[in-house]
Amino acid sequence: MTELLSEHYKAIIESIGEDVHRNGLADTPMRAAKAMRYLTKGYNEKLEEIVNGAVFDSDLSEMVVIKDIELYSLCEHHLLPFIGKCHIGYLPGGKVLGLSKFARIVDMFARRLQIQENMTKDIADAIMDSVNAKGVAVVIEAKHMCMMMRGVEKQNSSMTTSVMRGLMRENRATREEFLQFIRG
Q1: What is the residue-wise DSSP string for 106-155?
Q2: Which of 8, 45, 141, 146 is catalytic?
Q3: Is 77 a catalytic residue?
C-alpha cells in the first residue's frame, strides 16, 4: 500500500512541474506516503482495541472533564490539516474510562479524512457507548489550513463544534457546568 501511495505522490510532484529526481525530492514520494499512512492510521484502529478493557466500576456520579486534548486531522475536502483541541465531559453511569483512553479515542477519529462536525459526533458517540454514560459533551476548537492557506485566507479564523448527549443535552445546568469547566 505504501509503495502505491509513493507512486501516486511521484505522479503528483511531476504533474506540478517538479523534477522528482532532484536532490531534495528524490525520497519525497516515499516520505509523503509514509506520512499519509500515519496521518490516516485511524482507519486501522477499532474502538474496542483502543479501550482495551480500561473501563472500571465506579460509584462516581459527578462530572468528569478532560480538556485541551491536542488533535491533528486532515479535512476530507482539500486534504489539508486542521489543528486544535478537544474537550470532553461525561457523567458516569457506574463505569469510568481510563484517562489515556480519551486521548486515544480522539486520535483514532482525528487520524482519518473527515470534517470537524462529524469527528465531534463520532467522539461523543464512542465515549457514550464505551462507558454507557448518563451524558457526554464534546467540544472541538480547531484552525483549518484550508481556510488559512487557500481560498479566503483568513489567518485568525477558527471553528468550534459541540455535541451533547444524554443529560448533557437534556439538563441545562449540567451543560452549563461543563461549559464553565472548559472556559476556565
Answers
A1: HHHHHSSEE-HHHHHHHHHHHHHHHHT-SEEEEEEEEEEHHHHTSTT--T
A2: 146
A3: yes
